[in-house]
Amino acid sequence: MPIKTGRVVAVSDFVCRNPNYDADAQAMFAAQAFMQNLKGALTISELGHAQITAPFLESSSQQHGFFHGGVVGALADNAMGCSAFTLFEPGDHILTVEYKVNLLAPADGDIILAKGWVVKSGKTLTVTQGEIFVEKNGNRKLCATATGTMMRMTKS
Amino acid sequence: MPIKTGRVVAVSDFVCRNPNYDADAQAMFAAQAFMQNLKGALTISELGHAQITAPFLESSSQQHGFFHGGVVGALADNAMGCSAFTLFEPGDHILTVEYKVNLLAPADGDIILAKGWVVKSGKTLTVTQGEIFVEKNGNRKLCATATGTMMRMTKS
Amino acid sequence: MPIKTGRVVAVSDFVCRNPNYDADAQAMFAAQAFMQNLKGALTISELGHAQITAPFLESSSQQHGFFHGGVVGALADNAMGCSAFTLFEPGDHILTVEYKVNLLAPADGDIILAKGWVVKSGKTLTVTQGEIFVEKNGNRKLCATATGTMMRMTKS
Amino acid sequence: MPIKTGRVVAVSDFVCRNPNYDADAQAMFAAQAFMQNLKGALTISELGHAQITAPFLESSSQQHGFFHGGVVGALADNAMGCSAFTLFEPGDHILTVEYKVNLLAPADGDIILAKGWVVKSGKTLTVTQGEIFVEKNGNRKLCATATGTMMRMTKS
Question: Which one of C5, C127, C131 has the shortest CB-CB distance to B104?
């Protein structure tokens, strides 16, 4: 299957405000029982980016035996939120203001992979995007795209 | 807390194409293992409307002990999808094209209640809206609004 | 054409923080040359609600002689923004964070009418919704729904 | 201002169903009087991609002298729609089902540039994305991102 590169997004360099951003994001993720329910695992590859993977589980499925659309959306929201969180200051909390998911293809796979990244990092709001893939027998397929707006809540 | 009625949406009367819409929607819902994971229950009160309730579970929660935003979105998507499904013909399948959730308040409750209804029923696409409430100690609070676009897949 | 009332949104009573909200919203609207381009007129019927009407103009049309979808979205965004603005403090500015439009039917009319209202009024963010109608020969038709997130910028 | 490449989207190769896609897209664009109102110009650089530019006009502005958010959204919608249209068959029509715009920065520029491209091309629905830039004194700035769902209407 030939693949063509579509575009390159130019984004401003990100500023690191929390040297422990990876560990802090992992701690926030680990505190979400719903993510354990889905057996999700978080990877922070770099500042402003996050990736969540989860295996196919019967308990995450819909009527045709694929990942449920609600699971796709939940992982997208969380990957986008974690990507935003990496740019916050230590002690800040995060709220999702809104998220939108476009489901492009059935989420038919052994594993699901949700990527989130920051498009615009503001003082209060962070705008993020996401792409969600499924892998089956080693083939990766884009099954959804997402956008999300995240809010930074300062500790004080 | 004083409540004020905001608006009334005028919608065209819905046309019933499937006399067994309630039973068929319940069967589709029951086949979704992820909904059993969340202990969701579907109620079809009338044509073009659907409601899903789910109890608070540790396994549905986020880091502050509230319903996870991904659970809020998943129930909203499903309630909107079921509302659209009631207007389909027997044997039709449904796909979510896209959905969007605005999180208005922490989903802090003993129970969550997602309502979905049809705004525009077309031959191929159905546009829906949703409102998601949490109840705590008998007090109901609006915690999210949603919109969704659903696609009808004919059996043939 | 029989019309059925769909639902009633329960919203908290709004708090007025600016006794001159109507005049201030009108002044903000009047300063937008693009609204004059579309010959839009703003009506603030009550706190947290706004309505913009515009006549059909050749210069607002698309290839089939209807209002352009971009005009539908622009009026929806603005009606939602004005509804949020009525709840701000004197001197506050407003920014649209994001808006989404669902186009339900061709915007075929002599006049277009965009209604916006506040769903949740927060300190920083205001969540709004909108409905856009066209009228032709006295018949009103819902042609689009919208949601928008607005940000309050304090004068200081 | 240092710029960093963010990501590369992998998309399937597009299939050309209309050898005259560029001329046909230009004809559709030229028939939209609202685009002439904004002095928009369409460029189809390649299959599945479209770009609209427009100069700053007083009549396209909001209260601070920037491009109006409604103009940003209208151009985004149209660039996304034209990108989808290039993949249609001769004689097909296009409808926008829904579009969403995130406004990231004030659209303060001498010229605005809306790019749209196809993420998923289906038989009935096409999912698109967009980015909108403003240029001032030769400096280009990302001012908005967008997503849109387009519907193909066959001539028969």
Answer: C127
Q: Which of A111, A116, A113, A114 is nearest to A96 (CA)?
A: A116
How many CA atoms within 13 Å lie on the side-chain side of A112? Answer: 29
Is this complex's ipTM strictly greater than 0.85? yes
Number of domains in chain C: 1
Count of all residues that appear for chain A in the document: 156
Does the beta-carbon distance from B102 to C13 stay under 8 Å? Answer: no
- Give B36 to chain D, closest Cα distance, Å: 31
* DSSP label of A124: S
Query: What is the amino acid identity at position A72?
Result: V
Using a CB–CB cutoff of 8 Å, tell me whether C149 touches chain A: yes
* Residue B156, pLDDT score: 64
Domain assignment of residue C8, yes or no: no
| Window 6-45 of D, Cβ < 8 Å to C | 28, 31-37
In a domain, B11, yes or no: no
In this prediction the pTM is 0.93
Residue among C101, C136, B109 at smallest CA distance from D70: C101
Residue B106 is part of which domain span?
21-153
CB C149 to CB A100 under 8 A?
no
Smallest CA-to-CA distance from D31 within C45, A138, C61, B33 is with: C61
Q: Is residue B3 part of a domain?
A: no
Compute the nearest-CA separation of C10 from chain D (Å).
Answer: 26
Does A78 lie at the interface with B, CB-CB under 8 angstroms? yes
pLDDT digits (tens, 9 = 90+) for C42-84: 999 899 999 999 999 999 999 999 999 999 999 999 999 999 9
State the CATH number of the domain containing residue B130.
3.10.129.10
Residues recorded for chain D? 156
Q: Which of D31, D69, D78 sits opposite C96 (nearest CB)?
A: D69
| A39 falls within a domain | yes
8 Å CB contact of D37 and C31: no
- The pLDDT profile of chain D, 156 residues, written as one tens digit per residue, is 233 333 334 455 799 999 999 999 999 999 999 999 999 999 998 999 999 999 999 999 999 999 999 999 999 999 999 999 999 999 999 999 999 999 999 999 999 999 999 999 999 999 999 999 999 999 999 999 999 999 999 976
